[in-house]
Amino acid sequence: MNRPGLVISGHGRHVLIETDSGERILCHPRGKKNLALVGDRVEWLASNDEGTIEKILPRKNEFYRQDELRTKSFAANIDQLLILIAAEPEFSEVQLSKALIAAHAAQINALIVLNKSDLIKPFEAAFKRLAPYQAMNYEVRALSIQENKEAFKELLASLRGKVTLLLGPSGVGKSTFINTAIPHTNLWTQEISQALNSGKHTTTTTTLYWVDSDRQTALIDSPGFQSFGIHQIDPHALGRYMPDIQAHLSGCKFYNCTHLHEPNCEVQAAVQQGLITPSRYRIYQQLFEELSQPKNY
């Protein structure tokens, strides 16, 4: 008889399922390919000491990136995306924009958190670079995980009752964020290792952690920020997923305007008038060019 479960981590062809009672079972797909993502609700069938995924239940969303070679899915059924960046190392606005575009396309709310506010001058410079995103109504929060415990508590309170996907480049404090948010992270990791039969399976790439004991608030940790691609986006649709560009799409003379060189283009006019910052317009130009390249897959 099929039983319900939640995918809490991925291991190549295998996934780890958590049952409604909290039991963890290693499962494999019925076919050759594993299509289940962390965050998926599934139906599974017990088979000896493991299980078989029989059905993936309908998703409300799926967050993924697509580079020149392949598509990489992060997770499913996400309530919000938390992009963690820091005053140091200096963050890439292009990578930040790509993650925000992917979230917008998947209709997932995005929150930008700037860590290391204790580094005064680098923090001020980094926060200033985020002004255009605040103007686009993205929520931007300042944080110093180690130095400002109160701000961290307030941030965690805003995550309560939600499934949040945590993304960010290396060196920004993701591990510290998770270990501080979830005091029992080490115990959780040990339990997963035991469920995986002492490390016989491939290393976890994406993992869902419960923040609270009643399993209502979750953080999903996943790598992949540095190699973020958005080749799933049609270049002519790119402007729709960049709020500052999108605000000026309706006034162009030509319906198929690329907003790069055409006459009577409202987007280019908005750049000239200072309504779109030059840095954001350069990002649009760069991404349009990237997405217009011939696909290799």
Provide an overview of this structure.
With 297 residues, the chain is an alpha/beta fold. The protein folds into 3 domains: 54 residues, Nucleic acid-binding proteins (OB fold (Dihydrolipoamide Acetyltransferase, E2P), Beta Barrel), CATH 2.40.50.140; 160 residues, P-loop containing nucleotide triphosphate hydrolases (Rossmann fold), CATH 3.40.50.300; 57 residues, Orthogonal Bundle (Ribonucleotide Reductase Protein R1, domain 1), CATH 1.10.40.50. The protein is built from 9 helices and 13 strands. The two termini are 39 Å apart.
For the biggest sheet, the summary is: 6 strands, mixed
Q: Termini, distance in Å?
A: 39 Å
Helical content (DSSP H or I, runs of 4+): 25-40%
Order of helices and strands: EEEEEEEEHEHHEHEHHEEHHH
What is the tally of helical segments? 9
| Overall number of structural domains | 3
Q: Quickly name the level 1 CATH class of the largest domain.
A: Alpha Beta
Task: Please give the number of β-strands.
Answer: 13
CATH architecture of the largest domain: 3-Layer(aba) Sandwich
The fourth-level CATH homologous superfamily of the largest domain is P-loop containing nucleotide triphosphate hydrolases
* CATH topology name of the largest domain: Rossmann fold
| SS strand fraction | 25-35%
Strand order, sheet with most strands: 10-9-8-11-13-12
